[in-house]
Write a structure and sequence with these properties.
single chain; about 160 residues; mainly alpha; 4 helices; about 70% helix; about 0% strand; elongated; binds protoporphyrin IX containing FE
Length: about 160
């Protein structure tokens, strides 16, 4: 692995895995907000959680996608060669869509209505699951090449493809 590629992987792991911290922080602040009895304190906590979603969570995921795609394109893995890379891209795009479309717009409403609370806490749970799946795929890199379904299975097993 070249030193430039190593640097990109370091940046990629830092930006993508840090997203887990952002989701955990959002969960913690929201749990505190829901149990607050003082309306002003509750409002401040909800605004803070909203800031974490928009200023930390979404930017980290966006950078994670960009640096992930760059890592794929500049490594022998490629972007459209191996199914684990494409699966990670799909999982991460869904992971980005959850805070943009579900969590962010409702985060300040969790204390008002049960539907908003279910959507926000459920969305954050889904995000954590997606982070875990992406990390597992990254580390195990299961064999399987894009389009290999049309070819004999033996071609999938070339050992040189497992660790470029
Ligand atoms: C939250 C999402 C993601 C997480 C947690 C994550 C995590 C990781 C980790 C831990 C590694 C290092 C694995 C190793 O070196 O053994 C890695 C490598 C890699 N990731 Fe991601 N990743 C994410 C998103 C993406 C995306 C969106 C892509 C692009 C499609 C991507 C493509 C890659 C590639 C190609 C490598 C190998 C880089 C190389 O060996 O040069 N990742 N990822």
């Amino acid at each position: 692995m070249t030193s430039k590629r190593k640097l990109l992987v370091v940046l990629h792991v830092l930006t993508s895995v840090s997203g887990v911290g952002a989701v955990l922080a959002e969960l913690l602040v929201l749990a505190g907000a829901v149990s607050q009895t003082d309306p002003a304190g509750q409002d401040a906590a909800l605004r803070f959680a909203e800031q974490v979603v928009y200023s930390v969570g979404i930017p980290l995921l966006t950078v994670g996608v960009v640096v992930g795609v760059l890592s794929a394109l500049t490594s022998p893995w490629g972007l459209f060669k191996h199914t684990w890379v494409l699966k990670k891209l799909l999982l991460t795009l869904v992971n980005l869509a959850v805070p943009v479309l579900v969590v962010g717009p409702r985060v300040t409403e969790v204390a008002d209505g049960s539907l908003a609370a279910w959507l926000v806490f459920g969305g954050l749970g889904v995000q954590l699951l997606l982070f875990v799946l992406a990390t597992v795929l990254s580390v195990y890199k299961p064999k399987g090449r894009v389009g290999a379904g049309n070819r004999p299975a033996t071609r999938d097993r070339a050992p040189a493809l497992s660790h470029p």
